[in-house]
Amino acid sequence: MPPVPWRRGARGSAGAAIVVAALSVVGCGSAPIAPPPVSATAPGAEAPPSSCPSWLAAQQRGEGRLYRVDAAASQVRIHVFRAGRLAKVGHNHVLGVDRLDGQVFLPADGIAGAGVELEFRLDDVGIDKPEWRAGLGPEFASMPTASDVAGTRTNMLRAIDGERFPTISMRSSAVAGAFPVLAVKLAVRWHGQVREIDVPVRVDRPSGEAPLRAQGALVLRQSEFGITPFSVFGGLLAIQDELTVEVDVAARPATACP
Length: 258
What we know:
Layout: H1 10-28, H2 52-60, E1 64-69, E2 75-83, E3 93-97, E4 101-107, E5 115-121, E6 125-127, H3 130-133, H4 146-159, E7 167-178, E8 181-190, E9 193-203, E10 212-221, E11 231-232, E12 237-253
Antiparallel strand pairs: 1-4, 1-12, 2-3, 2-12, 3-6, 4-5, 5-7, 7-8, 8-9, 9-10, 10-12, 11-12
Helix pairs in contact: 1-4
């Protein structure tokens, strides 16, 4: 965290202390925030059984192809943005998913019956690796320290109640369009809530044993999942409601479900 210029004297010292406390609470320091109020899981928010067995059966009948997500070759980036009058002394953050899990099914002809299931654990999410921030421009140029990152992780998991709701899952409820540009309606389950989001996805239909590659992007609003974006001192320093999520999924032909 870059030093904050403050005037000398009692007033400046008090102001600096307030800002340091605010930064530590929002996530750029290690001071923990108070846990959020307990929220009940919305009816229907529990993830339904996986479609993988039915997709595998369809593959065995020659009706399509099942693909298993290759976590090592896949990439998910979540961008968290600072807000408030003192936003400039905070950081924007880049979160990355190293253990994306899931499967994709493509029918043998057309898109009717195509589907995708993706899931990752919040405690597996990486934060602010230099290679993730590189190339994102001046708004991401400042590099958080190791203690900043550790504090961000602690405060993030508490703010979103990560212990009670440890995963984010996404499952398609409908697929439209035509290869290579598809419109996927995703049911996103997070924090005991489920919301449907339309996501444009680019995917080339693979042939033979070639891997599948799909790319898309979506916006998650914390408030729509029952999460109040964190702020301190009347919004002096805060986190924006909107999180942008970029997804680049690689998947390989599969012959079994996990």
